[in-house]
Amino acid sequence: MKTKINSLYLSLLAGTLLTLGACSKNDDPQPLPTGPEEIGYYFLNEGSNLNSSLDFLGFYNGSYTENAYSGTIGKGGNDMIIYGSKLYITATDANKVIVLDAASKEELEVINIALPRYLLGYRGKVYVTAHGENKVTVLDTTSFSTNDIPVGRSPEQLTATGGKVYVTNSGWRDAATQGYDNRISVINPTTLTVEDNINVAENVQKIAADTVKNVLYIGASETFYGEKKPAKLYVYNTANRQLSPMEFGIEDIAIVRISSSMTQAYMISSNYNGATKPTCLVMNLSNQTVQELTTGTSIQTPYSIDFLPQLGFIVVGDAKDYQSKGTMHFYQLYNDGRATFSASQAVGVSPKAVAFNVNLKK
């Protein structure tokens, strides 16, 4: 179903005129010229009762399409990336990775993987963590052939820096009987083997990298079996192997190089400074100073956070009550570190990820 976007569409168009390091001389929204309809935003919604959906917002024409994918995602839509000309979606409870042409939305392949979770595009391959078989599956982006790499238990998020791929192993799926895992698996992308393991903390799930300094930011989630432990963020220096804990935990994280001298982490935390509900934070990675992100709008339940490098936007997904339609909030980044509210877009239930397509139809 298509609906027309008005003020949001104009706000986003105006915002994209402001790149990192540039300022607008006109405060009024300036519509861009008409352009290809396939350029725009994909929104992955986890859905109520885990019935997931994929929506699309046209960048130039402002047309919003619900259920932009003609097939069925199924239950547990968890992660989405555009890598090259293709869009990849993990549907955890449906045990599959869906591959679409990012421009035409045509289904190219459905790959059966047991409980797939997170995605990473790196050096011409797409890496997928799989809870069902405690492995990382590496997809060839042309033939869709696969290679499997055994890792720890209940692998979650991935990142890459310094020529290595890092995978969190949480162990949460069978923690009631086996306890949690606490390791980061280090994968060599040339040999597709695990060459090292880093012990961090129980139930490590989130991870992002400062690729300038090759430093990892690792989120250990709250534990519920055995000793109860709150969520905590850890900083790991890959050069000297030093691990340092922060005083709070995270539910999601995106690291952005703002300028040649500034890199920042945008995070969602439920226990920062005594908080009892999710809060959006920003941390300067040079000195690790943390402050709350000034949202400029009401966010009920921050649920996801992403960065769109093509536009310089941080995007926060608001799940509200996890039953009603959610909202994506867009923030324009500047090279002095400011993040200013740009616009909001109503999306589906429990917005989980956003991606921006610049590929054109062949």
3D structure, described in words:
This protein is mainly beta. The chain has a domain at 113-245: Methylamine Dehydrogenase, Chain H (7 Propeller). Helix content is 4%, strand content 50%. It has 2 helices and 29 strands. The chain has helices at 7-16, 175-178; strands at 2-4, 40-45, 53-58, 63-65, 77-83, 86-91, 96-101, 107-112, 116-122, 125-130, 135-140, 146-150, 155-161, 164-169, 183-188, 193-199, 204-210, 215-220, 232-237, 242-245, 252-259, 262-269, 279-284, 289-292, 302-308, 313-318, 325-333, 339-349, 351-357. The strands form 7 sheets. Strands 1-4-3-2-29 form a 5-stranded antiparallel sheet, with no helix packed on it. A hairpin with a 5-residue loop joins strand 27 (325-333) and strand 28. The radius of gyration is 20 Å and the shape is globular. The two termini are 24 Å apart. The relative contact order is 0.13. Residues 1-10 and 15-29 have low confidence and may be disordered. Keywords: Signal. This is YVTN family beta-propeller protein. Residues 1-22 form the signal peptide. InterPro entries: Host-pathogen_enzymatic-act (IPR051200), Quinoprotein_ADH-like_sf (IPR011047), WD40/YVTN_repeat-like_dom_sf (IPR015943).
